[in-house]
Design brief:
Blueprint: H1 2-13, H2 36-53, H3 59-91, H4 113-130, H5 133-148, H6 165-175, H7 182-202, H8 207-213, H9 220-232, H10 238-249, H11 262-265
Length: 273
């Protein structure tokens, strides 16, 4: 199992890892995902597949099944993370009862047009929710930075790892104004928004982003997160997240579960020439 993952990672990376820089550590930190339910399902499914089929099937038949299972589990993990962060933004806390993102799957290979259209509509809604993930991640990073460097909070911070739930709940309390230090952090973030907007206006760049930064109807952390994601560009933010989802779906692989709609467009319906 570990050898298979090492080979697949090497094929994907294309080159050796860069040398460590500065204070970077050689050991990978033990961090758990906030989507605990999806992670538990992935571990359980892999254990079941390996236990039941590991010794019963030849290697060439078993590996595609295993990779398809890993891909499906990673898709569930990515989408469940988006669901958890959306709920975190809305309520300020990581949900205790976690459910996967609902999807309608077309198992007719596109032959049933009504089922195909309904499935594509459900996937479009799923994609729209997933595309907000870069903003939510940036929002968490901004709050993380402000809380970590706050002089009055340094000695009161919960652990970030391995379980980040308590840390995200603290960030959520600050975002929703339930913490005693929330107002001071909000004021600093608002100053950052005004400063960035001023710099953009002086250089006559991204004026639409500058106007959004001055819109005090939204929380300054959210305004700044949306501005930074937009200024970085789709390829640096949303494109990377979509690439991760597409890599997990493996639409071009022989053992892939999904398929592109374009692959069915050229196929005639049954009974037609």
């Amino acid at each position: 199992m570990d050898e298979l993952l090492a080979v697949r990672l090497a094929q994907t990376c294309g080159h050796a890892p860069d040398r460590l820089r500065g204070r970077e550590q050689s050991q990978i930190a033990n961090r758990w995902p906030i989507a605990k339910a999806a992670a538990k399902c992935l571990r359980g499914d892999l254990a079941t597949v390996i236990e039941v089929y590991g010794m019963a099937l030849p290697r060439q038949a078993f590996l595609p099944m295993l990779e398809a299972g890993i891909g499906l589990g990673m898709v569930n993990l990515l989408l469940s993370t988006a669901v958890c962060l959306s709920e975190w933004e809305r309520t300020g806390g990581i949900p205790k009862e976690q459910t996967p993102m609902p999807l309608l799957v077309d198992c007719s290979h596109g032959l049933d047009s009504k089922l195909r259209n309904a499935s594509e509509a459900a996937m479009s809604e799923c994609q729209a929710r997933y595309e907000r993930l870069p903003v939510l991640m940036m929002l968490a990073r901004l709050l993380d930075d402000r809380v970590s460097h706050h002089s009055r909070l340094k000695n009161e911070l919960p652990p970030r790892q391995p379980d980040p739930t308590a840390w995200f709940n603290l960030l959520g309390d600050i975002y929703h104004g339930r913490h005693e230090r929330a107002e001071s952090i909000r004021e600093r973030l608002d100053e950052d928004c005004i400063g960035l907007a001023t710099n953009l206006e002086q250089t006559d760049e991204a004026l639409e982003v500058a106007r959004a930064l001055r819109n005090d109807q939204n929380h300054p952390a959210l305004r700044l997160a949306e501005a930074l994601v937009k200024l970085h560009g789709h390829q640096q933010q949303g494109g990377q997240f979509m690439k991760a989802l597409d890599s997990s779906l493996m639409p071009t692989a022989p053992m892939a579960l999904p398929s592109n709609a374009a692959s069915h467009a050229a196929k005639p319906a049954p009974g037609r020439r």
